Amino acid sequence: MPRCHWRVAARSAIVDPMEITPSPPPVCLADFAALARTVLPPPVWDYVDGGSGTEVTLGHNRAALDRVGVLPRMLTGVATPSLRTRLLGREYAMPVGVAPMAYQRLVHPDGEPALAAAAGAAGVPYLASILGSTPIEQVTATGAEVWFQLYWLRERALVVDLLARVRDAGCRALVVTVDVPVLGRRRRDLRNAFRLPPELVAANLPGGRDDLAHGGTPGVTQVTVDSGAAFAPALSWADLRWLGEHCDLPLIVKGLLDPVDAVRAAEAGAQAVVVSNHGGRQLDGAPASVTMLPEVVAAVGDRCEVLLDSGIRGGVDVLRALALGAAGVLVGRPMLWALASGGQAGAGTALALLADELRDALALAGCADPAAARQLRTVPMG
Amino acid sequence: MPRCHWRVAARSAIVDPMEITPSPPPVCLADFAALARTVLPPPVWDYVDGGSGTEVTLGHNRAALDRVGVLPRMLTGVATPSLRTRLLGREYAMPVGVAPMAYQRLVHPDGEPALAAAAGAAGVPYLASILGSTPIEQVTATGAEVWFQLYWLRERALVVDLLARVRDAGCRALVVTVDVPVLGRRRRDLRNAFRLPPELVAANLPGGRDDLAHGGTPGVTQVTVDSGAAFAPALSWADLRWLGEHCDLPLIVKGLLDPVDAVRAAEAGAQAVVVSNHGGRQLDGAPASVTMLPEVVAAVGDRCEVLLDSGIRGGVDVLRALALGAAGVLVGRPMLWALASGGQAGAGTALALLADELRDALALAGCADPAAARQLRTVPMG
Amino acid sequence: MPRCHWRVAARSAIVDPMEITPSPPPVCLADFAALARTVLPPPVWDYVDGGSGTEVTLGHNRAALDRVGVLPRMLTGVATPSLRTRLLGREYAMPVGVAPMAYQRLVHPDGEPALAAAAGAAGVPYLASILGSTPIEQVTATGAEVWFQLYWLRERALVVDLLARVRDAGCRALVVTVDVPVLGRRRRDLRNAFRLPPELVAANLPGGRDDLAHGGTPGVTQVTVDSGAAFAPALSWADLRWLGEHCDLPLIVKGLLDPVDAVRAAEAGAQAVVVSNHGGRQLDGAPASVTMLPEVVAAVGDRCEVLLDSGIRGGVDVLRALALGAAGVLVGRPMLWALASGGQAGAGTALALLADELRDALALAGCADPAAARQLRTVPMG
Amino acid sequence: MPRCHWRVAARSAIVDPMEITPSPPPVCLADFAALARTVLPPPVWDYVDGGSGTEVTLGHNRAALDRVGVLPRMLTGVATPSLRTRLLGREYAMPVGVAPMAYQRLVHPDGEPALAAAAGAAGVPYLASILGSTPIEQVTATGAEVWFQLYWLRERALVVDLLARVRDAGCRALVVTVDVPVLGRRRRDLRNAFRLPPELVAANLPGGRDDLAHGGTPGVTQVTVDSGAAFAPALSWADLRWLGEHCDLPLIVKGLLDPVDAVRAAEAGAQAVVVSNHGGRQLDGAPASVTMLPEVVAAVGDRCEVLLDSGIRGGVDVLRALALGAAGVLVGRPMLWALASGGQAGAGTALALLADELRDALALAGCADPAAARQLRTVPMG
């Protein structure tokens, strides 16, 4: 893994490079958190790590996953499981995508292209945030399979323009995030008076003007409410249907928890939904994503694919999601930890660890592949 | 926010003003607790903060709220939710009232009028305690919507006199507290041998003689049992009916947990009930208020309105209460924290924060207004 | 409260009397634990405080009580509740008895007579252990209502003799403990190599020879297994019936958890059963007593009275037991704490506190007396 | 207990013998953990103590056992319970076996023969791991009842040879471990870069070449996946049937959690199954073994015997397993703790303690023998 970038990039010398001793190699994704905490300025760490409100939903995400007992099957004749997975009609190396996250240059100067390249090398989709700090064309140029994540712009014409740009850049899918009518109140960011450094721009917005979106305070301002902001607040299912009709990419709706909403998304043209509470960053008090997953899977049936995010920290979590019926998962914060601490190489290591863990978990559960894992029985644990 | 009043008001110099460094602005109601703890003498803090007995019910109130998962709805077309709410036939700025709390000059020299004025400015009802340290007329003079809270006096003629005085002062409703046949045993107060300072009087009692009520030890003495005390202990449903007949203000019964009692209250003329365990200050071992809320709502149907108090600490808690069927909530301790640390301005800041949090929570849950929140589904969380 | 006895009685000066500062007056029974811990030598504290095995059942007892939510009723017209209770056909001042505990001179030189006198003054039964360190006649001479607790002697003739002696001494009931076929393995006692001081004798055993019972190591040796020991190990329901026929005192069976056993006890002549896991000191891994109480109450119906012990620490716990159907409770360790720290006066203070707490709890729950509390509804709390 | 062996055996002087003060005698199995932690190099301790992944399953094993409340029966006429138990048609001193564990010379130079001899002296079966650091013939030479544990070798001819060798050595049963298609990811071992010391060999593998199995890193390498490894990965029920036909020893299948798998094992010829998650060392996220035990017992009926392992730490745990229907249990880590801290004598002390605890637990529960314990009722505890 390369030397920590922050020694170069940090504007204020928060960490004295001389005091950093060589770290042992990470053995799990959580190890990257410890590394990232060392190199990131505390307010940036808080921005990445925090949730909204009392962070009760942030905690529920982990607690609920830990309570999912997966019942392994023995003597199934499985040698080395395959991780290959079809999502949205394309094949990927494992049932995992990199969750869309804003302003990745905030944690590492190589930003989005580094993380996308790592995802591409690992054979998994990279979900590029509309709030990326690098233009989408530079992200797709890495050769990764890129899904573009959209917050809806106020001016519908700009949406149309952006859809064309995204398609031309070679993105494979459009992910509409629906759980951000306003930003969740993230108390850590409020306490830190967290602001983006001026050199970071929302590179996918018209003219790169991130101030259109949130005036440089991603954790604080209500992105879509202020009249001057770029994002539309009062979206409806009719808007979603319009989007499906004006976009020839596969459509994914991200940020649902209610099975009724999932069915409506499928009926409005979504080929996949992502069951998510935005990693505990939006409605504090919402249930854990994994708590709602089985109901959503049952409700949508084969009308669309179901992905899960919020709280995934290792291969066993992927197995849990599969066993509860998900087609795959998105991994968020761990990828930022890895990017922060090691750039593209760090992210690659993290994805390789995740693949190793998932392969082992599948083998130990007696599953030849992710599809077999969806037949596993789960047992609630105290 | 003004400088801490206690620098002036404290009789003993517990806090050296020179040592107080400027506090960061509060980002949530809990921040006022930290501020209040700094400025209040420890026994006063304990009086405000404590519960009865082992404080197990005090703890249940929070734990039970944290386990209420609220399932948000997406793409409902909501831009900025309205918080406006009808309670008892009048419209308020949000579904929140300031809970009745005794002797508010104990925590800040401006006392009841300051908190009432903040409530008035925020457009929410202020519930004035019969044990206020300021005459009710000075409270209503702030222009706030005032609901008067009654502990029943032994002499029925005095009750009649007080009802007339309350009506003449312009109060909008009468709140009868029914869960204080005796005071709960508050161990912190007993340990501190807590007593009111002599200059504080029960300004609404005949002759301002608070000794009539409890001899200056609000947390300790059994208010209504001692033969010399002012309050009647053995109240019954017949007394409540008598009150309803002799009072032309809307009647609210506060301090019920049992659905059977709630129905009886409605049948005895109550236009609203407050599901409450008195903030964990009366029967230690009673269930959390929010645990009983759904049953009470189902039992009373449309016979009366149902409010909740005990444990509300933020906008998400209000959303939880609404989702479980409450028409609104009362907020107690956080308002004393804010009053203690910043007087009227502090209380105003707290109410503004609460409104901001509730507005965001409604938006994130896809609700156009509090009524819509009552249709949300809740999910128990581990 | 008198000065701590241990300054005189302690054989080794573990506590320097000069260093003891005046303690604040206890406000609840738990305060006596802190006092007792100060004055007792650590191995004696451990003997009193500890449970068997991993102490999981010891912990369950409290946790299960804390989860019993009691739903109070309002406006029931109750002024000052009465605590008076009929148990075994006699009236007592409250539904509480002092649990049988061995060798009370271990914690205070005044021992059994002091605790019995306090119970007598408080109007509650004192359960005298067969392993008392004072002859039963000196205990009944205090004027207390004494129930005699029996571990079954190997020689049946000695049992007959003892029954006569107990009756002649004026005991009001016979309590047969059935949950000690062997002593639980109390790891603290084993680690401390705890032994009785030589001056303590089992004053009710023939010739005062406590070595007959357990060779001076009450927490360690299997009392009834060793062939040389005084107690009979392999008791059966036939023995219990024989006892009922040879004893003209009311018979209480203490130490049951299983409803089936409770019914058999009633059928064998018991007028009361005590649902108890021996305060977590016998079978580690047994359920909490309060967990089994409702089933036992339902199973025995009106065939016999049901008492509860194990974990009672205050008036609210008594209310919980009553609400779950108990006729009363036994209180153990808190009485030893109070005896240790203040002799008879300390024990009297503890019982007065318990009565105050129970009176307040009944009033707050809307109950005129203990019988009314048995109609209360309980609500499980998370 | 003899002096700690590690003073002699340790290659690096991690523990200075001069600093070791005499330890108090162990009163429970957990005490041996503290002793072992003192004498073992930290990486060896971690290898013994750790689980896979986040160790959530490791924790579930204990938490789930602690929640099993066992309802004791009183007055059953039991004096001293018998512990004698029939397993696989042979009688043992108690319903306990020593779980198979690799490379026991890692924790004590006397290794497998010491532990086997202790088991033999205690009258319980010793399960010898195929990865033993002593040839099986030296283990059976101790006179213990030895059950041989098999990881399946890649070359079927070697399996046949090994079966003959095992039978000739006098082993009483063959235990096939089925939950190790790959090794669980044990993060502690990965962090410690744990490797076997070179002088340790897999003494039962052809030519003693442990590198065939895992290249000296038992906690790390995927034993059976690498093409060069000795163990076969993709086993099936057909292989198990083949084994049953080629082995005239009673067959035990170890490492099942799913009742469906247990039934298949019985149908394939297993005379017993061991419900086990490998002590939390294989699939992290698997349910606690004890959670699945009742279902497995119900599913197999009388088709085969059911044993439990994973988390057993004392006599009460054995009682819990019996009450839930197990015929017996295996005890793993505690035996290594005892071996590490005291060699054969230590292991003997541990087994004697376990027998004492179980005898007391049976007596306290009113059971004459292990079979009676299987009729006990269990009660879930919060």
From TrEMBL, chains A, B, C, D:
Gene3D superfamilies: Aldolase class I. Residues 21-382 form the FMN hydroxy acid dehydrogenase domain. Glyoxylate binds at residues 47, 151, 186, 278, 281. The keyword Oxidoreductase applies. It holds the Pfam family FMN_dh. GO terms for molecular function: FMN binding; oxidoreductase activity, acting on CH-OH group of donors. The active site is at residue 278. Its cofactor is FMN. InterPro entries: Aldolase_TIM (IPR013785), Alpha-hydoxy_acid_DH_FMN (IPR012133), FMN-dep_DH (IPR000262), FMN_HAD (IPR037396), FMN_hydac_DH_AS (IPR008259). FMN binds at residues 100-102, 129, 149, 177, 254, 276, 309-313, 332-333. Keywords: Flavoprotein, FMN, Oxidoreductase. Belongs to the FMN-dependent alpha-hydroxy acid dehydrogenase family. This is 4-hydroxymandelate oxidase. It comes from Micromonospora phaseoli.
